[in-house]
Amino acid sequence: MDEIICCLNNASDILVTSHTAPDGDAVGSLLAMGLALAAMGKRVVLYNESPIPAVYRFLPGSERIVHEVDPSRFDTAVVLDCSDLARVGRIRDAVEKMPIVVNIDHHITNAEFGTCQLVETDACATTEIVYRLITAMKVPIDQDIATCIYTGILTDTGSFRFSNTNQAAFDISHRMIASGVNPFHVAQHVYGTYSLGRIKLLNLALDSIEISPNRKISLMSVTQNMLRETGTQLEDADGLINYAKRIQDVRVAVMIQEMPPENGVSQNHRRHYHVSLRSDGTIDVAAIATRFGGGGHANAAGFSVVSTLPELKANLLQLMSGVETPVGS
Ligand code: 5GP
Ligand code: MN
User: Fold this and answer.
1) Ligand minimally distant from the alpha carbon of residue 24
2) Which residue intervals define the domain DDH in the entry (predicted)?
3) Which pLDDT score, from 0 to 100, does residue 325 have?
4) I need a labelling partner for 314 at 20 to 30 A (CA). Which of 136, 201, 273, 277 fits?
5) Mean pLDDT over all residues of the chain?
């Protein structure tokens, strides 16, 4: 922590970034860190390769996030919620060449990239770590920063329901509410402003659920056709996997999202897919995602792959064939 504070105190032009297809923690940590560094008088650029999902655009400062940047003019990069540098997207190589790269993350699979790391795998969210860092840097946590920190914790813990929900989640949320966060206002934006198309997409996604013969694995798919039919985007698939995970006896839920054709290969039915994995705690899905070049947490992980759908499903079922035997029996 002291080394990072020293790096940030000495920095003047800072690029703050987080992973592509950002979730609430990636947007929240990017904004909280960016607002805090700006309050310290630093020149900061907030960057994410992907558009900010509509449900997070209410977050203070989100209009400052840019999607194009000249990466040559920074002395420091702060990379948030990324287990490896490739997660930032196409600016990866440029970030790697920056004099100082600060890696702040909570993934078990963190590759320890960068010149200094603040990786705490017990943290429920990257915003938990950012909260401690901002406090240690003695930057006052105003309502705007507090809203970003709270939203990261709220969304990464699945509203305080997932296994990563720890005491800090409640302690910090309590403090953020004391700093002016309105939990109802945040919940309304994050969970109460879905488009009709998103609800219709939920219907199609639920209908796609398949269960393995032993009922331990559920598979859900979201295709480009479904998005077209409902007038939605991939960001609208966020969180759908939790329905597949809730099914009785299911240990691992798999969600296969077909990426737009421009991002991948479409010959011979091979497509670019993003695969999300969720576990009930008995299977380490970070290990499975790592086998496919991805990563994450023991109970929530993901990877990207180019494959045909039947081949991908067969590979996943094969890798998880151990799930056939209940752990401990
Ligand atoms: P999701 O399934 O929601 O995309 O991601 C679940 C978790 O796995 C998140 O913590 C996310 O950062 C991580 N994750 C998802 N996709 C990838 C990937 O392609 N590479 C790595 N390293 N982590 C991923
Ligand atoms: Mn996170």
Assistant:
1) 2
2) 14-153
3) 44
4) 201
5) 94
CA atoms of 128 and 135, how far apart (whole Å): 11
Contact 18, 82 (CB under 8 A): yes
Whether pTM > 0.90 for this model: the answer is yes
Pocket test for ligand 1, best of 19, 219, 292 (most atoms within 8 A of CB): 19
Q: Count of domains in the chain?
A: 2
Q: What is the pLDDT of residues 169-228, one digit of tens each?
A: 999 999 999 999 999 999 999 999 999 999 999 999 999 999 999 999 999 999 999 999
Which ligand is closest in space to the CA of residue 125?
2
Is residue 205 assigned to a domain? yes
Q: Are residues 41 and 179 in the same domain?
A: yes
Sign of torsion, CA 165 168 171 172?
negative
pLDDT tens-digit series, residues 48-95? 999 999 999 999 999 999 999 999 999 999 999 999 999 999 999 999
CA of 320 to the centre of ligand 1 (A): 18
246: containing domain: 196-322
Residues 317 and 254 reside in one and the same domain:
yes
Please check the confidence at residue 329 and state whether its pLDDT lies above 50.
no
Compute, in angstroms, the gap from residue 305 CA to the centroid of ligand 1.
Answer: 13
44 and 178 share one domain = yes
Residue 208 Cα to chain centre, angstroms: 24
The alpha carbon of residue 40 and the mean position of all alpha carbons in its chain are separated, in whole angstroms, by 26
**Same domain, yes or no: 244 and 274:** yes
CA distance 198 to 177: 29
CATH number of the structural domain spanning residue 232: 3.10.310.30
